[in-house]
Amino acid sequence: WMDAAKFLTGASAVGSIAIPAILRHANLIETGAMFIEFTSFFILVCTVLCFHKVSLEEDW
């Protein structure tokens, strides 16, 4: 399961960054839409990192 999780995480990360950039390069979406997608990905990454940090602490 660990390999599958790493693969899906990598595919999600690449897709979340590459797909909006490719669509913007092809002029199918506006620059603002691309930055909104990048911002949502950044918020998701911060949420996952915060959850991981909290789950490592023994006080919880």
Describe the structure using short key phrases.
mainly alpha; 2 helices; 60 residues
Describe it for me?
With 60 residues, this protein is an all-alpha fold. The protein has one domain. It contains two helices and no strands. The radius of gyration is 15 Å and the shape is elongated.
Describe the biggest sheet? Answer: none
Provide the gyration radius in Å: 15 Å
Spatial shape: elongated
Structural class: mainly alpha
Percent of residues in beta strands: under 5%
Number of DSSP E strands: 0
Keywords: Membrane, Transmembrane, Transmembrane helix
Subcellular location: Membrane
Membrane topology: Multi-pass membrane protein
Transmembrane segments: 6-23, 35-54
Short structural description:
By secondary structure, the protein is mainly alpha-helical. It is built from two helices and no strands. The chain has helices at 2-25, 31-56.
Question: Strands, helices and their partners?
Answer:
Elements: H1 2-25, H2 31-56
Helix pairs in contact: 1-2
